[in-house]
Amino acid sequence: MASLRLDDQLCFGLYSASRAVTSLYRVVLDGLGLTYPQYLVMLALWERDDRLVKELGAELNLDSGTLSPLLKRLHAAGLVERNRQADDERAVMVSLSDAGKALRAKAEGVPDVIGDAMGLDEAGIARMRKELDRLAESVNAYREALSPAG
Questions:
Q1: Among residues 33, 86, 94, 139, which is most buried (max CB within 10 A)?
Q2: Using one digit for the tens of pLDDT, what is the confidence trace for 62-119?
């Protein structure tokens, strides 16, 4: 029979690890003037600039109610520009400003700091990332199978 002891629960280990990592990100990103969710948005834009809000939301798994305030704060900080599409007023294009592009150079050391704190080199990070992706895929498939069709 499975134990119901807190220390035996995988969910608690994941929760504790997640809190520790996001807390570290908070400290590291403070020097960049970014929150962790804002950093994720910037990562996506540094990877591929000029994105529709809808595309960003899909990539980051964020709904518009969460993403819109993040983008407003990034815009107010001068890191992104937001422009409505001429052919569709509902569609908003997000682009990096010059300051947003420049911030990328300052952020380049963040992954190394996080990897060092985790005791992982690049290969270890790649293995961990692959395992986390596999875990998320497996859990999402299982959850979908449990959900009533609708």
A1: 94
A2: 998 999 999 999 999 999 999 987 777 678 999 999 999 999 999 999 999 999 999 9
DSSP 17-62: HHHHHHHHHHHHHHTTT--HHHHHHHHHHHHS-SEEHHHHHHHHT-
CA distance 73 to 82: 11
- Domain 17-102: top CATH class: mainly alpha
DSSP assignment letter at 12: H
Predicted TM-score (pTM) of this structure: 0.86
CA–CA gap between residue 118 and residue 129 (Å, rounded): 13
Instruction: Report the relative pairing of strands 80-85 and 51-52 from DSSP bridges.
Output: unpaired
